[in-house]
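Title: Prediction job returns without error message
Component: structure pipeline
Severity: low
Priority: P3
Assignee: unassigned

Description:
Job completed but the reporter wants confirmation the result is attached to the right record. Sequence as submitted:
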Amino acid sequence: MVASGGSSRARDAPHAGLDDLLGENPYVPEEPGELRDASRRTRLANERTYLAWWRTGLTTLAVSFAAGRLVPALSGGPNWPFELIGIAFAAVGVAFVTYGYVRYRDVEQALARGDFASLPGRAAISFAAVGALLGLATIALVLLHPT
């Protein structure tokens, strides 16, 4: 007998504490149809994540335009530092869109095999490092560039 009122399957599940709040454990499918729904939800989540990569890439491209074209037009001094930062942001935007597709494809293939595709550590550290470097370069440019 389970003291929390849930089933023994829910008690053994990794998120068993939720059954106290929800009455049942939502992570334990009760019927075969729920497995199909879980697969659909996972594929839809993969599509949403792909679109998030696109949004991030497009936003980064907008930042590249602002840094490389708009800011130099409004400031005095040499334009090349802003143009360089703008080009770097554009490269990151293209990388986001491109890697978003690669990631989408990898996850779809893993789902077809009934497997899981984690984000490779190399990709995560690469995006983090480039983002940190661009952020530091932008801060330096803002602080050191004459206006």
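Comment from assignee: result matches the submitted record. Residues 1-22 have pLDDT under 50 and may be disordered.
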